[in-house]
């Protein structure tokens, strides 16, 4: 009996060439023009300050120009290149991409979360980097650097783990710092579940926190614009909301599995022309509902639950 040949795995295509190349800045052609306000933006000022202090951290990404071998097309790093031009630099080390689709780069950038920035600053300070140099590199004043370095003071490890990659502002941690450990964890979960990290929302959580769960439990809560009666009602509403969220979380996985199985089964039914014809003739209202079920997307399913 003849054995079937096994499929050999295909080679993986690399996204970049193995080595960086040093190119004349004049030979790099941008694929888009910078906006009029680009050079006045905080991001541009931070790039300029960073280059002045420590040079280019992340090389620009270029691709070979298929029409002119002496020039290169700039896929990512337009602000960096512009900052280098303003600094009268003549050359820059670049990554060479094997793909010329520029739109994929900026869409896949993972922005630095405040906790990650805090850890980066703390690690630099522990390694002996002066706070003044860090402030210059990030284009921040000294008080901002010190505040970022103390960001997690008074925050429990569990809450830090919950919010480690979330876009929380300093004000969020200021509010959490007023809560005891267990309440910090609950508040972190509320922020994540609601996908809302605004100051207004965390202040609402703080306002709805029972007095006994505050660090200064003997000191009466004072929230601007909220009366003690309204605060008591808010505490009760928040407690009910937490109970509702907890009950949903307990059955979320099972409900999602049931919905997925039902959607697959109904999809197979509607793949049968005889079934569709029967439903259209005898139960058109069922057919419409079944078709709606098969068209549910994962996001819509999450919203429905």
UniProtKB/TrEMBL annotation:
Transmembrane segments: none annotated. GO terms for biological process: chromosome segregation. It comes from the Bacteria. InterPro entries: Chromosome_partition/occlusion, ParB/Sulfiredoxin_sf, ParB_N, Plasmid_RepB. GO terms for cellular component: chromosome. Residues 21-115 form the ParB-like N-terminal domain. This is ParB-like nuclease family protein.
């Amino acid at each position: 009996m003849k054995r079937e040949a096994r499929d050999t795995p295909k080679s993986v295509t690399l996204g970049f060439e193995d080595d960086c190349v040093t190119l004349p800045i004049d030979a790099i052609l941008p694929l888009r023009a910078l906006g009029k306000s680009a050079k006045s933006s905080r991001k541009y000022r931070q790039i300029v300050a960073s280059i002045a202090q420590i040079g280019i951290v992340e090389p620009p990404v270029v691709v070979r120009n298929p029409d002119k071998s002496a020039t290169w097309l700039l896929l990512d790093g337009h602000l960096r290149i512009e900052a280098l031009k303003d600094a009268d630099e003549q050359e820059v080390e670049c990554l060479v991409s094997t793909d010329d689709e520029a739109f994929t780069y900026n869409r896949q950038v993972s922005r630095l979360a405040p906790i990650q920035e805090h850890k980066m600053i703390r690690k630099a300070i522990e390694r002996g980097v002066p706070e003044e140099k860090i402030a210059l590199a990030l284009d921040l004043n000294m008080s901002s650097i010190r505040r970022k370095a103390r960001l997690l003071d008074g925050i429990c490890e569990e809450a830090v783990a919950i919010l480690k990659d979330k876009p929380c502002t300093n004000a969020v941690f200021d509010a959490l710092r007023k809560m005891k450990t267990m309440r910090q964890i609950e508040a972190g979960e509320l922020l994540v579940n609601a996908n809302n990290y605004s100051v207004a929302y965390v202040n609402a959580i703080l306002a709805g926190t029972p007095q006994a769960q505050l660090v200064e439990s003997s000191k009466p809560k004072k929230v601007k614009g909220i009366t003690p009666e309204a605060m008591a009602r808010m505490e009760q509403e928040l407690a009910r909301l937490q109970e509702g969220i907890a009950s949903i979380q307990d059955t979320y996985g099972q409900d999602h599995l049931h919905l997925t199985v039902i959607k697959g089964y109904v999809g197979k039914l509607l793949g049968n022309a005889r079934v569709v014809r029967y439903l259209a003739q005898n139960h058109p209202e069922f057919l419409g509902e079944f078709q709606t079920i098969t068209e549910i997307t994962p996001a819509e399913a999450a919203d429905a639950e």
